[in-house]
C-alpha cells in the first residue's frame, strides 16, 4: 500500500494529508517497538472525528485509514471500511436499536466503522429518540478499539452537541481531522481529473481550458453559496450537465475527438443548471 501515491490522487486537504502521514508513521513505530520486545501494549488504534462540509472527501480519507491499518498488520482487513448512517443503526421500536447497532459493529470488527452524519443519531431536543441507544452501544465498544470508529459531520454546533451527548465518546476520540472547502482552483482540478478518468478531454487542441481557465468559469458562473454547499459534489453535477450540453452540440457523424471533448461553453451552461443560490444556505 503506497500512501503517497493514494494521497497524490486526491486534490487539496493538505493538512489532512499531513495528519494521515503522521498517523501511519506513529502506527509503524509502535509496530516496530512491539517487534523489538518493548512493552507498548496491544495495538489499540485511536477513534477519530472527521469535521467538515459535505463533498470534501471524508469517506475517501476514511478508506485510507483502513488501508493504513491493513498495510501495517494492525488487524484491519484490507479496505474493510463499513459505512453507516442513522438508518443503519437506529430502529423504530424500543430495544431494536441496540440489536441493529450490534449487528453493524459485528460486521465492522477488524476494520473501520465510518459513521457519517453522526449528529443525526441524536438530534437536539429529542431526549426520547432511539438514536441515543445507538450512541450508547457505540460508546460501549470504543474502549476495545475494534472496530476503529470515525464519526463524521459538519464542523459546527451539531457535532459539538453530539459529542456532549455522551462524554465517553469525547474521551475516547483521540484524533480530530478538520476538512476544508475546496477552492475554485481545486474544484477545477478535480473536474479535469474526473473527466480524463472517463477518457474525456477538457478544451482539446482548439481551446486552452486548463485549471486556471476552468476555475475562472466557476468563479464567474457559480456563487460562493453554491460552491460552499455543494463543494466536491458540485463537480459531479457539473460534469453530468456538461455532458448533456456536449451531446446537444454533437451529431451521429461526430468524430471521437468531438464526442469526447468538453468546451468552455459546456461548463458555462452546466453552471447555469446548478441549484440556484437562493435555495441554499451557506453551511458553517
UniProtKB/TrEMBL annotation:
Belongs to the CbxX/CfxQ family. One of its GO terms (molecular function) is ATP hydrolysis activity. PANTHER family: AAA-TYPE ATPASE FAMILY PROTEIN / ANKYRIN REPEAT FAMILY PROTEIN, AAA-TYPE ATPASE FAMILY PROTEIN _ ANKYRIN REPEAT FAMILY PROTEIN. It comes from the Eukaryota. It comes from Phaeomonas parva. The keyword Nucleotide-binding applies. Pfam families: AAA. Keywords: ATP-binding, Nucleotide-binding. SUPFAM superfamilies: P-loop containing nucleoside triphosphate hydrolases. SMART domains: AAA. Residues 44-183 form the AAA+ ATPase domain. The keyword ATP-binding applies. InterPro entries: AAA+_ATPase, ATPase_AAA_core, CbxX/CfxQ, CbxX/CfxQ_RuBisCO_ESX, P-loop_NTPase. This is AAA+ ATPase domain-containing protein.
Amino acid at each position: 500500500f503506497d500512501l503517497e501515491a493514494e494521497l497524490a490522487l486526491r486534490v487539496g486537504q493538505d493538512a489532512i494529508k499531513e495528519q494521515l502521514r503522521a498517523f501511519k508513521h506513529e502506527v509503524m513505530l509502535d509496530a516496530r517497538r512491539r517487534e523489538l520486545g518493548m512493552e507498548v501494549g496491544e495495538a489499540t488504534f485511536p477513534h477519530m472525528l472527521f469535521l467538515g462540509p459535505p463533498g470534501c472527501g471524508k469517506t475517501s480519507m476514511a478508506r485510507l485509514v483502513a488501508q493504513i491499518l491493513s498495510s501495517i498488520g494492525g488487524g484491519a482487513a484490507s479496505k474493510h471500511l463499513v459505512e453507516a448512517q442513522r438508518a443503519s443503526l437506529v430502529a423504530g421500536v424500543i430495544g431494536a436499536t441496540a440489536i441493529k447497532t450490534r449487528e453493524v459493529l459485528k460486521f465492522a470488527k477488524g476494520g473501520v466503522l465510518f459513521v457519517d452524519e453522526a449528529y443525526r443519531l441524536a438530534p437536539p431536543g429529542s431526549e426520547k429518540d432511539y438514536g441515543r441507544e445507538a450512541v450508547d452501544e457505540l460508546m460501549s465498544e470504543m474502549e476495545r478499539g475494534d472496530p476503529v470508529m470515525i464519526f463524521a459531520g459538519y464542523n459546527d454546533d451539531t457535532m459539538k452537541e453530539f459529542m456532549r451527548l455522551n462524554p465517553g465518546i469525547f474521551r475516547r476520540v483521540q484524533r480530530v481531522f478538520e476538512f476544508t472547502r475546496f477552492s475554485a482552483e481545486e474544484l477545477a482540478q478535480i473536474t479535469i481529473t474526473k473527466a480524463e478518468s472517463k477518457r474525456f478531454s477538457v478544451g482539446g487542441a482548439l481551446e486552452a481550458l486548463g485549471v486556471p481557465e476552468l476555475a475562472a468559469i466557476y468563479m464567474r458562473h457559480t456563487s460562493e453559496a453554491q460552491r460552499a454547499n455543494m463543494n466536491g459534489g458540485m463537480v459531479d453535477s457539473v460534469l453530468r450537465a456538461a455532458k448533456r450540453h456536449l451531446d446537444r452540440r454533437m451529431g451521429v457523424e461526430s468524430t471521437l475527438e468531438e464526442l469526447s471533448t468538453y468546451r468552455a461553453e459546456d461548463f458555462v451552461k452546466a453552471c447555469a443548471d446548478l441549484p440556484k443560490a437562493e435555495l441554499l444556505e451557506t453551511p458553517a
